[in-house]
Amino acid sequence: MKNGVSSRAEMRARIASFGRDPIALDNRQDPVIGCSNSGAAVLLAEGLWRPVPVSWSPNIVSRSLISPELSIVQISPQTDRLLLVARPKSAVWLCPCCGCQTDRVHSHYLRRLADLPWQGRVVEIQLYARRFRCANSQCRCQIFIERLPATVRPKARRTTHLGGSQQAIVFAVGGQPGSRLSRKLAMPVSGDTLLRMVHSAPLPDLIAPTVVGIDDWACHRGQRYGTIICDLERNCVLDLLPDRNADSVARWLKRWPGIKVVARDRAGLYADVARCGAPNPVQVHGGPLAPTQQFR
Ligand SMILES: [Zn+2]
Is residue 227 within 8 Å of 243, Cβ to Cβ? Predict the structure, then answer.
């Protein structure tokens, strides 16, 4: 049985325990159930939290307001934002160089991290991070900064959760539209920063293409053109080359010797691909590439 009970009768008994009116424990009558929403939630500092009741089933969702690596010291709701003062939970840390455990704090420093919004408000975490002294006198890292991999990347100014949301936005709608949307969602970020997120995002693993299409595309119409290469079987863009000459395309094709068919337009711009030392796939002349309408 799901829902943490062993039988249907037990589940009905539990439902009955929450209601004011008795219900039959057999299947003759379906109970009326509902849920409650907290309309005016009150945020408590972590020292005032109550532990999760032991009788709660593990499928009841309960989670910390922020990363499990951090403790909230103070919560300051403000007009337009929510300020969380936090500190790392762990009392000891492992040296990244020698792996030696240490609890010798060298110093503290303040990090300001943007986090996911709460109730339409910008959330800022003021994190009192620490520098540690390595306990191994022979170690070359005498002083090191603690890392919080589940919370934030080194030197980043936004939590990994916020960065993931903003990255999803920029991939969906682009830089400047993504900036406007993020501001509406209380996750303000500039368009340039969103574009840097795109450039730093890991590339997905490419499946070796066998049928590709080549065409030119305008970075600035009438001024600057590049080359777009698409996988015509999977209907996706494989690469953008900064220019539109046959040498660049030939170099690209050499990286994928399994390509069997190259579709290109009749203009002859890429007609020299085969003469530039590239493999000799079947060349198909055709119109515009099918996936180009998906490329923005
Ligand atoms: Zn060390």
Answer: yes
CA torsion 236→239→243→247, rounded to 10°?
-110
- Tokens, residue 275: 């003469």
The two three-digit tokens of residue 4, written as one number:
């943490």
Q: What is the C-alpha to C-alpha distance for residues 102 and 95, in angstroms, rounded to an integer? A: 7
pLDDT one-digit tens code per residue, 25-63: 566 666 666 555 555 556 666 667 667 667 766 555 555
Q: How far is the CA of 131 from the centre of ligand 1 (A)?
A: 13
Nearest to 289 by CA among 250, 237, 251, 225: 237
How do residues 65-88 score in pLDDT, each as one tens digit? 678 888 888 888 888 899 999 999
Contact 100, 84 (CB under 8 A): no
Query: Residue 102 C-alpha to ligand 1 middle, in angstroms?
Result: 9
pTM of the model: 0.60
Q: Is 67 within 8 Å of 46 (Cβ atoms)?
A: no
Total Cβ atoms within 10 A of residue 7: 9
| Residues surrounding ion ligand 1 at CB below 5 Å | 95, 97-98, 100, 134, 136, 139, 141
Ligand 1 geometric centre to CA of 286 (Å): 62
**Ligand 1 centre distance from Cα of residue 106 (Å):** 13
Ligand 1 center to 144 CA (angstroms): 8
Distance 98 CA to ligand 1 centre (A): 4
Backbone dihedral region for residue 89 (phi beyond 0: left; psi -120 to 50: alpha; all else: beta)? alpha
